[in-house]
Amino acid sequence: MFTKYRIFQILGLLTLFLQLSCSMENPIPTPTTFIPTPSDVFYKGTTLAYVAHQETYGGVVFKENGVPKDAFKSIADHGGNITRLRIDMPPYKSSYTTGYADVDFGSPEKVKIQMQRAKNAGLKTLLTFGYQSMALEDNQKLNGAVAPLAWQGIATDVEKLKLAVYDHTTTVLEDYINAGLTPEIVSIGNETNERFLEPNMKESDLPAYSVVRSVKLLNAGTKAVRDLNKKYGINMKIACHIFSAASLKFWLKSHIRNGLDFDIMAISHYHEWHSLGDFKNWTEVVGYVKTNYNKDFLIMETAQLFRNGGNDAHVDILGVGNIPAGYDNPPTTNTQKKYMRDFGQELYDAGGIGIIYWGGEWVGSNTLIFPDQYGAGSSWENKAFWDFNYNLHDGVNWMNEIVEH
To answer: CB 70: neighbour CB atoms within 10 A?
Structure first.
């Protein structure tokens, strides 16, 4: 989600296009005829990463029908079967966090607590490894894909960086597995369209984007998951996550040719920010991924408004331009519910394996979430599933309205 705050890197995509002729380590499978067939398991849910932080430091009491209720249980009781959490790396404080609690809700220790809450509520977990420091000073983050602070000294050495990725992923996951908290899906990277774990320098000074380098680093995370699956006799699925269907063909072709190993192609899609490129609908997208590359397809991030404007001083992003024609605008809770139901239904019918909402829990409060110049509060409170009084509203019921057959 951090990439929503920057302009999409068009030049990076052009560079990616030029690399389509790179070495072919793995052949691309021969496409087969696509017959949409619903998946045996369809994941529906939302991020809940900020829940405990908001409860502890923001004065938030999540409620349902005016009565306090565990947010994880509310999602499960309204049709959800999964939540997405994210591992962030230190530091968890910077000059931006002065006067606020550390933003360490993505630390392995605190994510472990959230995973237990999810399990207690009957939810599976999708765990994202972003491989990024949560809070950096400006001079420690000169580009949007900078390596975490502890790894910046080895960011030009791909072999050392691979080992760091493998060891970090293994250490965190093995601890969770031994605690009975095995995630259903592990996402290696977060919106890794272009660059990944780069040295700390301005983007204009970075070397040309290397598909081969990124594949080596992503596969280090993948190998950690595969090795743990073998060691413990489990089956954590592996996702790779990019931020737009418009770049899907370029990304898949160049990275698969260079041996990228994963199970699920995951995409972010916000109607105001993203397009489908030359696809006409989501059925075509799912069909392309499944028939050309034999990968499952998942929407990892999306959202919709339930009302106009916010209720705090924090800057708001993703406005009414996110509402397609045919939905109530100005928005109501029905806008959110109907949009998400329709989106999820199309994906289910096409054979996608799920749709996960971003920021369903990010209500307005007096605590800091992102360590930036905007301070405490939320840029997303008019897209959360709880209203401005922290009471669950009808928008959440989209998960119950997807018809599975």
So the answer is: 16
Q: What are the residues whose beta carbons fall under 8 Å from the beta carbon of 9, sequence distance 6 or more? A: 193, 194, 195, 203
Three-class HEC string of 162-219: HHHHHHHHHHHHHHHHHCCCCCCEEEECCCCCCCCCECCCCHHHCCCCCHHHHHHHHH
Residues pairing with 355 in the sheet: 44, 299
Q: How far apart are CA 192 and CA 228, in angstroms?
A: 23
- The kind and range of the H/E element at 264 are strand 264-268
Pick out the chain residues at pLDDT < 50.
2-25, 27, 30
Listed in sequence order, the residues at least 6 apart from 139 whose beta carbon sits closer than 8 Å to its beta carbon are none
Q: For residue 168, what pLDDT is reported?
A: 98
Q: What is the pLDDT of residue 29?
A: 52
145 vs 50: CA distance, rounded Å: 22
The neighbour count for residue 218, using CB atoms within 10 Å, is 24
CB 30 within 8 A of CB 292: no
Tens-digit pLDDT profile for residues 24-53 = 445 455 456 788 899 999 999 999 999 999
Share of the chain above pLDDT 90, in %: 90
Q: Are 240 and 221 within 8 A, CB to CB? A: no
Predicted pLDDT of residue 10:
39
Q: DSSP letters of 12-28?
A: HHHHHHHGGGS--SSPP
Rg of the Cα atoms in the chain: 20
Q: What does the chain come to in residues?
A: 405
Q: Which two tokens mark 159?
A: 């072999």
Cα gap 44→64, rounded to integer Å = 19
Q: What is the pTM of this model?
A: 0.92
What is the per-residue pLDDT for 6? Answer: 44
Dihedral angle of Cα 215, 4, 299, 254, to the nearest 10 degrees: -30
Rounded Cα–Cα distance for residues 240 and 310 (Å): 32
CA-based end-to-end distance of the chain = 32
